Amino acid sequence: MRRAWRIALIGLGVLTLVLLGQMGARYLGLLTPRDTPEERSALLSPFYKVYLPDSGQGPFPTALLASGCDGPHDNMARWAGMLNEQGWAAVMVDSHAPRDYLDFQVWRLICAGQIFTGTERAGDLAVALEDVRGMAFADPDRLLLFGASHGGWAVMDLLSQAATPRPPQGLSRWPGDPQARGLAGVLGALVAYPYCGPGSLAARQGWAAEIPVEMILVRDDEITDEQACLDIATGQTAVRPVAVTVLENATHGFDQQEREALSTLEFSPEATTTALGLGRDFVTRISAPESAPGN
What we know:
The chain contains nine helices and seven strands. A seven-stranded mixed beta sheet has the order 1-3-2-4-5-6-7, with helices on both faces. α3 crosses α9. It is 38% helix and 15% strand. The termini are far apart. α8 links the parallel β6 and β7.
């Protein structure tokens, strides 16, 4: 009996090591399937959702929106609405539906960090940026990146990967001009309650992109550690200061009303209004000529 237990424990230990090894390899990009920017664009582009201002003539400054780990929900429409009111177009980049990550709640594996890291998802944003530059309504010289939670992780890891010639995990090369490394025309990045833990490339090495970045965090975030994000912001001071606001009395995902029945997270109209106001102020600042990168 004892021998059987020992064998079972050894087997469990081996399985745990294998799984940890696979996750580690995934985070390093060793197990990430590779495709060309053209192949990635063909995967993503049928699922882009475009929001245009009700008035004004294009080309419009345009924001790319990346959702949390559970896929696009109503909060993306709220951010798009705010941007439209400011005269910005918005393109929601759905990374989930093209990969069937919404079927059978596969998204739970993303939220648990077992598949599809933010470092890998950064490649979606790099390709989507190149696609948006070619859209008739978009001004390719006035672009913004917005990400919530897992999407914020992807945004920051794109900034981090743009520091090297190596393309984002899963891409065979940078889309468009390889010297621009995906960030041509990007005026700023806005992230809400992003993941900043050990799996984040931005947490390990920061970024060299000289664009304004604003973080909207929540105090005592039970899903992601806001202190880790504050540490990233502190470390970026030498490049360009990161603006940070920490909201009190709000949970992770405070701007998302659609959620699972057993979720402990809460939609907060008050925190959402505050966050949208911060976003409105941010796009106003980055739209000013003196805020352009290098100025």
